[in-house]
From TrEMBL:
Domain Glycogen debranching enzyme bacterial and archaeal type N-terminal, residue spans: 19-141, 171-297
Glycogen debranching enzyme C-terminal domain residues: 415-786
Domain of life, source organism: Bacteria
Protein's UniProt name: Glycogen debranching protein
PANTHER family: GLYCOGEN DEBRANCHING ENZYME
Transmembrane segments: none
Length: 805
């Protein structure tokens, strides 16, 4: 089931300008924009590429505006918003329909009224390459009363040899459309504005088709293109990597590149305006591309923007069609693989439970709704998995086979934390690893990520961000107390999913060393209090937990002392080490026995019950032994005391804490970080240019986080251990399963809002819950996927009692 919008939505600017699409290439690069066609963020563009030696992704091609001459009339399909508040042109009025097909955006424009023509534009990227394709074709509607058309069972792009239209060509040759494309380039860091006066100098090298060079100019152009292909190569002084702008079709399209070299000024980016950020951008038009397209023709025109080598497989029609087909097949296989997993290889075992479709309770066809839900989560997960190539001093080689581009250098794996901030947060990646990499059976990537990250322990601490080829780690990047503990959490999930205990044997000495460093004391005031065995972390001016927002270099929520979730994670880590030690003791080289870790875990748990429990309130302290004493603020952090696989909180207290969390923190879109009755609670996320700190202050003072639904469901499922009889257990399992599905259901509607096919990170704490500025979140996607898998496991374990009614 594709996400699609008809003319009722497409011609409403307010609805289309707030809906965004995203396509990624697996290298940290992407293409993104709005359904309306107007760019609303500095980060929007048709090619954002992570380039060697660049500290940030670079925006190369910002957008393309189309001008169509047909039936003695010109249609302007682009939409631009300017600083004075005007829109020019306003091409969204011609947008007939929009849909995401296998995750790729397809725009359908109507030209010439009900009996006119249909122009289709589709956008996709080649996986593993900094290349974006924008393809156009022209159709006559199959039925004049219907704005849509069909194909004969194909989703691949059309060229002269790959597809047929459902309606035969009319008698005689139709007059062609003249398609003029205006490619606006940016040549800047993807999140920064530019003005033409300060912009770097831009070099444009035009390429001619074979046999078209004027006499005496044969050596002026470095690359001759075949008939039907035209374009240029662009180099900016501030971006050493050249990139190509090409148009390819058939010779009869007569594509022509006409150099212009002019600046367009004062484009406004409304999202940046609201946030009080630089919001005005100038774009450069290196030239225009003009071509002819015939209605009801099998031919297409494809615009290509790429940083790859200018070789035939980049612009050959057969290669383009093959690449698109492979992209589609890969996405379809991802869903098929999730539903019908194959035995794993390379020292990993077959997963214990395959994914199944779960019914969505309110859908007219609950299982169809379940397939759409799972499909969107799987597609969304792909956007966050990126690879980067270590610097080797030479260009990665490519194969010359069309449609079969390959790299010779093995890439490293990284996980993008959010769009469009493009951050690589280690904590987020470790929490997300079970959902993003294990549920989707990317075991090799999970292993590589955990193995590579283990090389960056310093004093038992892991860094806040994952190192890249462009940015080495510094001491400043080790400002946390919990990421090492989340590493144990992710490793536990990996081992249980794969049975790859050879890796545990390899990594165990580093794990034991980390435990010892935590006990003895390490960076950031991290150590075990010898009086009670609890973990303490405090350093002036530092926020060392996941609530780590700063304003004017001061932590908003410092939480110095003994945070509740930090000690829950510490106990969980000790229990994991106890179990792993039992498994590895026979090898004889481990430093401490299982009893050693069990002893410290028992003391930690005993002290936790005595020190954190507030009997008069019925829930836990957020922090104890802080600079100002014990902090009784009712925050979400205590959820981890009952959600982990080894919960530190005694069962006698678990249900009471779970109920008060449910009453005060649970919302339709996740869980609040703070109860509404607490002083300092902020019910709404404020994006105010006059008060830029208001957003940071709201993040952990009441905002609702989607990803916390994962730990909440974990805590809910942990309650099943307290059931008494087998019959009661089955009834309770069914209740929990249905409640879990009900928790997931509201998020399905978010797939067609905001960044399409994705789920946001945070929402307002109070109704109506508006989404925050982060359009898509790694944590949200991962925890929804992991929770879905948890509910699948319940369905498999208790099939008779969980059938839908």
């Amino acid at each position: 089931m594709a996400i699609s919008f008809d003319r009722n939505i497409c011609c409403d600017l307010n609805k289309t300008i707030s809906r965004e699409w995203l396509v990624t290439n697996g290298l940290g690069g992407y293409a993104a924009g709005t359904v309306a066609g107007v760019l609303t963020r500095m980060q929007h563009g048709l090619l954002v590429a992570s380039l060697p030696n660049a500290l940030q992704p670079q925006l190369l091609l910002a957008k393309i505006d189309e001008e169509i001459t047909f039936d003695q009339r010109t249609y302007y399909l682009g939409t631009n918003e300017y600083r004075d508040g005007t829109f020019n042109p306003s091409g969204f009025v011609h947008l007939e329909a929009f849909r995401l097909e296998e995750g790729f955006p397809i725009f359908t424009y109507r030209l010439g009224g009900i009996d006119g023509l249909i122009l289709e534009k589709r956008i996709w990227m080649a996986h593993g390459f900094n290349t974006t394709y924008i393809q156009y074709r022209v159709l006559r509607p199959t039925n004049p009363n219907k704005p849509v058309y069909t194909r004969n069972g194909t989703t691949e792009p059309l060229n002269a040899n790959t597809s047929r239209l459902t309606q035969e060509n009319e008698q005689g040759r139709q007059e062609p459309l003249v398609l003029t494309l205006l490619p606006f380039t940016a040549n800047r860091p993807y999140n920064q504005s530019q003005r033409s006066q300060q912009a770097a100098h831009i070099h444009v090298q035009t390429h001619r088709a074979e046999g078209t060079q004027p006499a005496g100019e044969e050596n002026q152009y470095s690359h001759q293109l075949p008939q039907g292909v035209t374009g240029c190569t662009i180099t900016a002084d501030n971006i050493k990597q050249p990139y190509h702008l090409l148009a390819t079709g058939q010779a009869e399209n007569q594509p022509t590149f006409i150099p212009t070299g002019v600046w367009y000024w004062n484009f406004i980016r409304r999202c940046n305006s609201i946030a009080g950020q630089p919001d005005t951008d100038d774009l450069y038009l290196p030239g225009v591309i003009r071509a002819m397209l015939w209605p009801d023709s099998q031919a297409t025109l494809t615009l290509i923007v790429s940083t790859e080598k200018l070789e035939p497989q980049l612009y050959q029609c057969d290669a383009i069609a093959s690449l698109y087909k492979k992209n589609i097949e890969q996405r379809q296989r991802a869903l098929e693989r999730a539903l019908h997993p194959q035995p794993a290889t390379h020292n990993v075992a077959q997963p214990s439970n395959p994914l199944h479709l779960l019914p969505v309770t309110t859908a007219s066809d609950p299982y169809a709704g379940g397939q759409h839900y799972l499909q969107q989560l799987l597609y969304a997960s792909e956007h966050f998995i990126t690879q980067y190539y270590p610097t080797t001093g030479k260009e990665p080689a490519q194969s010359s086979r069309p449609g079969n581009l390959k790299r010779e250098i093995q890439p490293k794996v990284a996980l993008v934390a959010n769009y469009f901030a493009q951050e690589y947060k280690t904590r987020d990646a470790l929490i997300a690893l079970p959902g993003i990499l294990l549920v989707t059976e990317r075991y090799a990537e999970a292993y590589q990520f955990l193995r590579d990250l283990a090389d960056h322990f310093i004093g038992g601490i892991l860094p806040d961000r994952f190192p890249t080829a462009q940015q080495a780690l510094t001491d400043h990047n080790y400002s946390n107390a919990d990421i090492t503990l989340w590493y144990f959490y992710a490793l536990d999930h990996y081992l249980r999913a794969t049975g790859h205990y050879e890796f545990l044997e390899e990594i165990f000495p580093r794990l034991a060393e980390s435990i010892n460093r935590y006990k003895q004391g390490t960076h950031n005031g991290i150590h075990i209090d010898p009086r009670d065995g609890l973990l303490i972390a405090e350093k002036a001016g530092k926020a060392l937990t996941w609530m780590n927002e700063y304003y004017e270099d001061r932590p908003i929520t410092p939480r110095a002392g003994k945070p509740v979730e930090l000690n829950a994670l510490w106990y969980h880590t000790l229990m994991l080490m106890q179990g792993w030690s039992e498994r590895l003791e026979y090898i004889g080289h481990i430093e401490n026995s299982a009893a050693y870790y069990q002893q410290h875990a028992n003391r930690c748990k005993h002290s936790f019950q005595q020190r954190f429990w507030q009997p008069e309130r019925g829930y836990l302290y957020d922090v104890i032994d802080g600079p100002e004493g014990d902090d009784a603020t009712f925050r979400i952090n205590q959820l981890f005391a009952l959600s982990l696989s080894h919960p530190i909180l005694d069962t006698v207290y678990q249900q009471q804490v779970f109920e008060v969390i449910t009453q005060h923190l649970l919302t339709p879109y996740g869980l609040r970080t703070m109860a509404a009755h607490e002083p300092g609670y902020r019910p709404h996320i404020e994006i105010d240019a006059r008060h830029p700190h208001a957003y940071q202050q709201a993040l952990h003072q009441g905002s609702c986080w989607v990803w916390l639904l994962g730990p909440y469901v974990d805590a809910m499922l942990n309650q099943r251990k307290n059931t008494l009889t087998e019959s009661d257990s089955h009834l309770f399992q069914e209740y929990l399963w249905r409640k879990g599905m009900k928790l997931l259901e509201p998020l399905q509607a978010r797939f067609s809002q905001g960044l399409l096919g994705m789920c946001e990170n945070i929402f307002d704490g109070n109704h109506p819950q508006q989404a925050g500025p982060q359009s898509a979140s790694l944590l949200s996607t991962a925890e929804l996927l992991r929770t879905y898998k948890q509910l699948v496991k319940m369905r498999i374990d208790h099939p008779a009692s969980l059938l839908p009614r």
